[in-house]
């Protein structure tokens, strides 16, 4: 029965509730169960919430009025049996309240424009970003979109994080801003794993910082946070360069010749290569590559190379080679 | 809206070209280190060529890579006029004599300049950061593409699982 399922589910949450088997259904219980619409399936709260309002009200009244009755009928079990019933209505509301509260908090933060533009929360290192970043799928924030488009550099990545505070307001409070929190939102369909989040947080902070730098007088090297911004930038550049080094080593170890079948590999990996954050929406564009005329692709070579290539085993990266470029 | 994807596509195109060019001009056989250097070189040239704009880092990278290759005609083909343009721009950058800054910032900017190709030629810190951010975008494209390629098992043609789960 759905109500029994509901009792069972709630008993785990409410706390001091007796087990199902100890519940003695009085006649009123059975009446309610019988009158519940048969199509109510599924778990605890859905059954309750789908109940017609009248029946829900009945439940409420039932718990209020019949507590004394139940005590007389079911002896010692009386007070505890009604706990799940009475508590059943409230947790369902509290769940909704939780979600509503969360949304309202986010909404207020979004509208209220946290002072201290988050780019100035420069205390966080790369590791700490994972703790402070909150990501939720949301619509794009047009305000942030505008400020992103104002950047002078032409090649900006489109998957920017949406910082909830405005940068325009922070001109007055720029020196004292040390926000401990960075709220970021991922666009729909973007990867939300920790790595991307941290990098997106870093990029968003850097971008916002850049905007500030542009607005300020060229005495910006006196600002407290510049060193930390530079720290982050340096870490990011270093890590990317190291990755390039390691990846090229890996590619060199696998391929016995330098010009491996890049074109054929990528032709077969179109959808997944462009996956990134855009779920392969442009992979069909890769099918026709207008080569620049430097070299004509020889598709016939591919089969020969496949036979010639043999795996060299796993690539072992020597740490000294990694440090070589640094 | 697909700016990053376009960056990656341009990088892929250029990388194919540079790989072929490098392979035709390098004598075989090569050991792993030399192959790695060649791949890295071609990849760096590819991102710089994909940018091929008004950034200092792209031109500096091309110039730096051009010095590493022994084959002059190929280097000239890749560089086109970019190298000359960069040399001209270097001379126009004036040295800022009195640079008073906090020690931490100063050291970090110096280090950042050493990381970013052509950074040591930039005096304006604001411009340095702009260059760095642009360079980061292309570095990231480079890493993404290379990681995808490296994940492909060339012998069997199957894609390993770790990339799928990214």
Topology, pairings included?
The complex is a heterodimer of chains A (326) and B (166).
Chain A: H1 2-14, H2 27-35, H3 44-50, H4 53-65, H5 67-74, H6 78-112, H7 126-132, E1 133-134, H8 142-149, E2 182-183, H9 194-215, H10 226-254, H11 262-268, H12 270-273, H13 301-308, H14 319-324
Parallel strand pairs in A: 1-2
Helix pairs in contact in A: 1-3, 1-6, 4-6, 5-6, 7-9, 9-10
Chain B: H1 3-25, H2 32-51, H3 56-68, H4 72-79, H5 82-92, H6 103-115, H7 125-151, H8 161-164
Helix pairs in contact in B: 1-2, 1-7, 2-3, 2-7, 3-4, 3-5
Characterization of the model:
The complex is a heterodimer of chains A (326) and B (166). Chain A is 54% helix and 1% strand. Chain A is built from 14 helices and 2 strands. In chain A, β1, α8 and β2 form a beta-alpha-beta unit. By secondary structure, chain B is mainly alpha-helical. Chain B has 8 helices and no strands. The C terminus of chain B is likely disordered. In chain B, α1 crosses α2, α2 packs antiparallel against α3 and α2 crosses α7. The chains are: A mainly alpha (326), B mainly alpha (166). At the A-B interface, α9, α10 and α11 of A face α1, α2, α6 and α7 of B.
């Amino acid at each position: 029965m759905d109500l029994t399922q509901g009792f069972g589910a709630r008993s785990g949450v409410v706390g001091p509730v007796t087990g199902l088997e100890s519940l003695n259904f009085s006649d009123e219980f059975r009446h309610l169960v019988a009158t519940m619409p048969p199509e109510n399936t599924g778990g605890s709260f859905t059954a309750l919430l789908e109940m017609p309002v009248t029946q829900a009200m009945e439940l409420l009244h039932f718990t209020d009025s019949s507590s004394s009755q139940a005590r007389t009928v079911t002896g010692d079990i009386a007070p505890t049996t009604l706990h799940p019933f009475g508590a059943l209505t409230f947790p369902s509301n509290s769940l909704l309240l939780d979600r509503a509260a969360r949304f309202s908090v986010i909404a207020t933060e979004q509208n209220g424009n946290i002072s201290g533009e988050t780019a100035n929360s420069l205390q966080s290192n790369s590791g700490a970003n994972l703790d402070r970043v909150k990501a939720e799928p949301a619509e794009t924030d047009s305000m942030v979109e505008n400020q992103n488009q104002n950047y002078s550099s032409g090649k900006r990545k489109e998957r920017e994080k949406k910082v909830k505070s405005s940068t325009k307001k922070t001109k007055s409070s720029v020196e004292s801003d040390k926000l401990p929190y960075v709220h970021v939102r991922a666009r729909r369909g973007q990867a939300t794993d920790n790595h991307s989040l941290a990098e997106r947080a870093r990029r968003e902070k850097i971008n916002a910082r850049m905007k500030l730098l542009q607005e300020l007088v060229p005495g910006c090297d006196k600002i407290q946070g510049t060193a930390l911004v530079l720290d982050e930038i340096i870490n990011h550049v270093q890590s990317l360069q190291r990755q390039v080094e390691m990846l090229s080593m890996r590619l060199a170890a696998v391929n016995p010749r330098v010009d491996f079948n890049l074109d054929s590999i990528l032709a077969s990996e179109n959808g997944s290569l462009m996956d990134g954050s855009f779920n392969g929406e442009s992979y069909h564009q890769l099918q026709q590559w207008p080569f620049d005329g430097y070299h004509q692709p020889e598709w016939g070579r591919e089969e020969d190379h496949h036979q010639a290539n043999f795996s060299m085993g796993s690539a072992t990266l020597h740490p000294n080679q990694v440090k070589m470029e640094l | 809206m697909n700016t990053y994807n376009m960056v990656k596509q341009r990088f892929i195109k250029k990388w194919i070209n540079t790989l072929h060019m490098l392979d035709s001009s390098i004598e075989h056989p090569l050991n792993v280190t030399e192959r790695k250097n060649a791949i890295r070189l071609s990849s760096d040239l590819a991102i710089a060529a994909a940018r091929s704009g008004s950034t200092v880092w792209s031109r500096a990278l091309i110039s730096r890579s051009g010095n590493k290759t022994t084959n002059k005609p190929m280097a000239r083909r890749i560089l086109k006029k970019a190298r000359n343009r960069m040399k001209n721009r270097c001379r126009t950058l004036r040295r800022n004599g009195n640079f008073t800054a906090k020690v931490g910032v100063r050291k970090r900017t110096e280090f950042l300049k050493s990381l970013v190709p052509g950074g040591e030629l930039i005096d304006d810190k604001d411009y340095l950061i702009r260059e760095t951010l642009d360079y980061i975008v292309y570095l990231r494209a480079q890493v993404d593409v290379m990681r995808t390629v490296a994940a492909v098992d060339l012998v069997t043609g199957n894609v390993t699982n770790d990339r799928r789960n990214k």
